[in-house]
Design goal:
The protein is mainly α and 127 residues long. It is built from four helices and no strands. Helix 1 packs antiparallel against helix 2, helix 2 runs antiparallel to helix 3 and helix 2 runs parallel beside helix 4. The longest helix has 28 residues.
Length: 127
Amino acid sequence: MTLKKAFPYLFLLVFTLLIIVTHISINSFMPFIDDVIVLRIYGIQFILSILLYKISSLIHAKKKEQLGYVFLITTTLKTILFYILLSVVFFPNQKWEHNTKVFLVVQFLIYLGVDVFLTARLLNSNE
């Protein structure tokens, strides 16, 4: 695998590690959510973003003009799957605190931005 093809995966890995370190640093001063849950949530977002990019790159190779629609569908499915995992696995039968909701929204928006960046990069490639 060349560096150009490995860039999205390396970017996601390095980005996720940086954001985890940043979060744990902030959480050590102002604890509001368990670090184990945080690591699992970032892990899920990392895996879902890799899957989304893999699906997008497969579609890009076959039908580049359909990539935008596929991105919308996969992002919607990612959102639904993420919400189901949160409500069933991580926070079952619990009322979410305001800090937890803010963390989840910010974290989701960060990964949505990364997904948009990688998809735009894929759309602008000449391959």
